[in-house]
Amino acid sequence: MTDPRVSAIAEELLTARKHAREVATHQQPALRLDGLVRAFHQGTRRIDVLKGASVDILPGQAVALVGPSGAGKSTLLHIAGLLETPDSGHVIVNGRDCSGMGDADRTRVRRVEMGFVYQFHQLLPEFSALENVMIPQLIRGRSKAQAADRARELLGTLGLSERLEHRPAQLSGGEQQRTAIARALANSPRLILADEPTGNLDPYTAEHVFEALLHLIHTTGVAALIATHNMDLARRMDRVLRLEAGALVEVQPLGVT
Ligand SMILES: Nc1ncnc2c1ncn2[C@@H]1O[C@H](COP(=O)(O)OP(=O)(O)OP(=O)(O)O)[C@@H](O)[C@H]1O
Ligand SMILES: [Mg+2]
User: Fold this and answer.
1) How many folded domains does the chain comprise?
2) Does residue 12 fall inside a structural domain?
3) Residues with CB under 6 A from ligand 1
4) What residue owns the CA closest to ligand 1's atom 29?
5) How many CB atoms lie within 10 A of CB 218?
């Protein structure tokens, strides 16, 4: 006869697992790309970059976007980030279809729900690390004190507590990139889009910046789509998507066919 305590624990575990599955299946994607098509015209030449790219990305997922140079990774990120519009297809952010939105609404979704990290950090050179992380919050209407607290907390998590007053030129490349990550997360977005965030760094620094980014994704539950040429880093994310002939293909983990 099984110990009733064991049965009770087993039951509890099964219920918890069922609940987790339900949450997972009902979870709304932070980002849904649906049938994105985009071509560029260069004189008489036409380049079909995206030919029906689709994917769902759930909260808390770190998703790598890989593919050779020119495959369309940046194009896809610009469209997902509502900076450009596709020829057809839909970008759905937290359940809202942004495809038909006007400029003002797109800007609002971008400011409120998204954070961006670029290969070249694009920090404001005349402001300190702390101020760079405060600025997007001030634009959103937070008080200076609140913005400074949040900026200090984020920069601290990223190991930059001793660099708050440094301007970008007084920071190393990796420190600048970590500041850019803190800035992207400053308004607690639901989605992070990053275009080769470690592409400009030496392998050692890239590793540290990547670890910090991954840690933040998993602890905050933000969803992230991260273009990278580094397959070692890509494989450590939750999923890897390859842009192949204009479509997104899920790359299976090593050893799984
Ligand atoms: N504004 C534009 N006008 C014309 N062609 C463009 C434009 N933007 C991108 N392209 C073309 O679209 C293709 C995809 O470019 P994209 O920058 O998205 O590639 P990528 O995958 O990000 O490459 P990389 O790994 O080198 O950054 C390229 O062939 C590029 O030349
Ligand atoms: Mg690119």
Assistant:
1) 1
2) no
3) 40, 42, 47, 49, 67, 69-75
4) 70
5) 14
Tell me the HSE value of 114 on the side-chain side, using a 13 A CA sphere: 24
Ligand 1 pocket mutation, candidates 47, 229, 241, criterion most atoms within 8 A of CB: 47
Ligand 1 pocket mutation, candidates 73, 118, 196, 244, criterion most atoms within 8 A of CB:
73
Alpha carbon of 165 to ligand 1 centroid (Å)? 37
Please enumerate in sequence order all residues whose Cβ is within 8 A of that of 240, keeping only pairs 6 or more positions apart, or say none.
63, 64, 66, 234, 250, 251, 253
| CA angle (90 as vertex; 84, 96 as ends), nearest 5 | 100
| Residues spanned by the domain of 77 | 27-251
Ligand nearest to the Cα of 40, by number: 1
Residues 58-66 have a mean pLDDT of: 95
CATH of the domain at 195: 3.40.50.300
User: What percent of the chain has a predicted confidence (pLDDT) above 70?
Assistant: 92
Does 249 score more than 80 pLDDT?
yes
26, pLDDT greater than 70:
no
Residue 208 lies in a domain: yes
Phi first, then psi, for residue 35 (nearest 5°) are 60, 45
For 147-205, write each residue's pLDDT tens digit.
999 999 999 988 899 999 999 999 998 899 999 999 999 999 999 999 998 888 888 88
Q: What are phi and psi of 92, to 5 degrees?
A: -115, 115
pTM for the whole structure: 0.86
Question: Which ligand number lies closest to the CA of residue 68?
Answer: 1
Q: What is the mean pLDDT of residues 65-88?
A: 96
- Confidence tier at 257 by pLDDT (50, 70, 90): very low
